[in-house]
Design a protein that fits this description.
By secondary structure, the chain is an all-alpha fold. It has helices at residues 4-14, 17-36, 41-50, 61-68, 84-98, 105-112, 123-134, 143-147, 154-172, 178-190, 193-197.
């Protein structure tokens, strides 16, 4: 596997400045969450660094489709990717594995599911999913409230991030991926009503 610093340098050269800044923000937030919830710091950092590694200036949407078709997880849920917003997660998993030599299935899973979530998310899955939404450069109504939940439990944080995503997609009239709905309902069942309604 490539070293962290080698990947960092490669992505800095190939990403737009705003995308690279977002990536560093996700790494920073994922590291904080890993420390808070006793998860593997190195895995969190690598998964966060690579979560958008297909969003580089030299990869076209057509190439992204071809790359995404090689994901290890394509049989776990229907592909259902109608745009780059979902497609890049699959492509990033493939690039992390094929280009950067990542063989750790936990890291690859966190990259693959960082846009839709999945039923039975691991701690690392939840860390990267949530870090992607609340990293410092994100600016949307309610993001500060989500950031305040960083110490309120990883499942609770992830649920609220996913709830915000579902609400946004509903309000914008966008299709909601079935995997996201399944993940949302799964987390809702795992949290009791007091945890969901308080705070």
């Amino acid at each position: 596997m490539f070293s962290y610093n080698m990947i960092l340098h490669d992505l800095e050269c190939r990403m737009k400045e705003s995308r690279f800044r977002h990536t560093l923000g996700v790494v920073q937030t994922a590291e904080k969450l890993a420390l808070r919830y006793d998860a593997d710091h190195d895995k969190a950092a690598f998964a966060a660094l690579l979560h958008d590694c297909s969003k580089t200036t030299d990869i076209t949407k057509e190439q992204m489709y071809a790359i995404a078709s090689r994901t290890l997880f394509k049989d776990e849920y229907p592909l259902q990717t109608k745009g780059e917003a979902l497609l890049h997660a699959l492509a990033s998993e493939v690039i992390a594995r094929e280009k950067y030599g990542v063989g750790d299935m936990e890291i690859l899973s966190a990259i693959r599911w960082h846009t839709t979530g999945r039923v039975g998310m691991s701690a690392l899955d939840m860390i990267v999913y949530s870090a992607d939404m609340i990293e410092p450069s994100r600016k949307f109504d309610g993001v500060e409230k989500l950031r305040l939940l960083m110490n309120c439990g990883l499942k609770r944080l992830t649920f609220e991030c996913m709830k915000r995503c579902v609400f946004y997609l509903e309000q914008s009239g966008s299709e909601i991926h079935q995997t996201t709905l399944d993940s949302y309902n799964y987390l809702k069942e795992k949290l009791n009503e007091t945890e969901i309604n308080n705070g």
